[in-house]
Amino acid sequence: MKNFRGLAVITIAALSIIGAGCAKKKVAAITPNPPTVREPTAQSTPAATTPERRAETPPASTPSTPRSNMPDAATRARIDQLLARIEDAYFDYNQHTLRPDAIKALQTDSTDLRDILKDYPDYKLTVEGHCDERGSAEYNMVLGQARAEAAKNYLVQVGIPGQQLGVISYGKEKPVCQDESESCWQKNRRIHIVAVAQQH
Length: 200
What we know:
- The chain has 200 residues and is an alpha+beta fold.
- It has a domain at 73-195: CATH 3.30.1330.60.
- It has helices spanning 2-30, 73-85, 100-107, 110-117, 137-158, 182-188, and strands at 89-90, 125-130, 165-171, 190-195.
- Strands 1-4-2-3 form a four-stranded mixed beta sheet.
- Strand 2 (125-130), helix 5 (137-158) and strand 3 (165-171) form a beta-alpha-beta unit.
- The termini are far apart.
- The relative contact order is 0.13.
């Protein structure tokens, strides 16, 4: 009976050892592996650690001030000087053809005037046509217009833009001389160039 009890104790002890071994193996089997720490690569580097590339913005260009189509005060004064130096062109009685002396008068300073006016397309001049007192008012208005047109055509040939030259006839309404003589009448048969009054 003692032998049987001893055998039973040994058997239980052996089973306990085997069971404990199995239990350890089971516990070890379900123990999770520690997480693998990987070295960061170029692809896995967080975006925060890489410097941001910012697109370069071109510097804002300062808008250039557009050039005025009208001359400044100094340039207007220069134009007035040129106009004062350009003599009136005179005509024969009942004629609107430019005489050689009329062409010479228009040539004076007209190239300088052209060089200024082409830079200021909104600045305009008027060519006035005048007549002496003889003949009807209606006839002299037509003759004065023809004289102004003849002078304008010459100035356009010199190079002054035609759109900057207006024409007007005063006929016999604005004489510069009141005497009834040929020398006085000659002074009234003329064209005169003036700057158009500018609106401000």
